[in-house]
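Subject: sequence -> structure tokens, single chain

Hey, anyone have a minute? Need the predicted structure for the following. Not urgent.
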Amino acid sequence: MTESEFLARADAILDKIHEQVDDWFETLDIDLDASRSGQVLTIVFNQKTHVVVNSQAPLQEMWLAAPSGGFHYKFDNTNWVDTRTGTTLQDNLSSIFSDIIGRPLTIAL
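Reply:
Had a minute. Here:
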């Protein structure tokens, strides 16, 4: 994939996550703040727990930093897959967000 294709995919993923998180704030009354600066999306839950999703164009990876650790994802032509565990970005985000909030939340990518 070219760098411009990667950046377009990364933008789309970050936009989707941001939209869904903003929707949770509005419809589910979850205490969170989401902000994006370039290729970095920061989500702060309950004014203390940070989750950061960002793109790494030189490596063509999406990176996730959360209380449970750091994760790197490569695109396999279908999903963003963790380079160590094989877990998808979608599944891992859903699990991390659910753990932080204490109730089931699902991210759809």
